[in-house]
Design a protein that fits this description.
Blueprint (H helix, E strand, L loop, with lengths): L3 H22 L5 E6 L2 E6 L3 H16 L12 H19 L8 H27 L7 E11 L2 E10 L6
Antiparallel strand pairs: 1-2, 2-4, 3-4
Helix pairs in contact: 1-2, 3-4
Bound molecules: zinc ion (ZN).
Length: 165
Amino acid sequence: MINYLEKVRRNHGIEHATVHVLSEATPNLSLVGRADGGGFAIIGDVEPETLAAAAQEALRRMKAGQGDLAVHPRCGTQLVTIGALTACAAFFALGRRPRLSKLPDAMIATTLATFLAPTLGMTLQKYVTTSPNVFAANFAGVSKRDFAGISFWHVDIAWEENGER
Ligand SMILES: [Zn+2]
């Protein structure tokens, strides 16, 4: 059986792949996605029919071997990684007693961290926050959701409990 966190990781991967497919058709599309145990939500300017077609295309392509679609450069994992890494870099460069003379060290350290963080973020996505293992996934429709006065679409993904490969 696939546990909840594993479902979220895999749905997160399908979410990224779907955004990749949508962006191929509309390059400047700005969308926000959020995965959960039952699929993923998409907030942005997209028609439900377009979203449904893109999600099915994403699943088809991932099952055909395009697992790298599960990683996306504009994922929240990237921002969190950049924030955490630069904060740590500044903390260590400034030391216990921050002094103005240590500012250049802190600037070098945070610049280096900002430079390295995107690659680290993509690696974290690949191995931790997403999974390309979607062989047991089935597209189950697009439903309308409302939360805090915002309407958005939710792509429902059904997982076959015995469909593991
Ligand atoms: Zn993401």
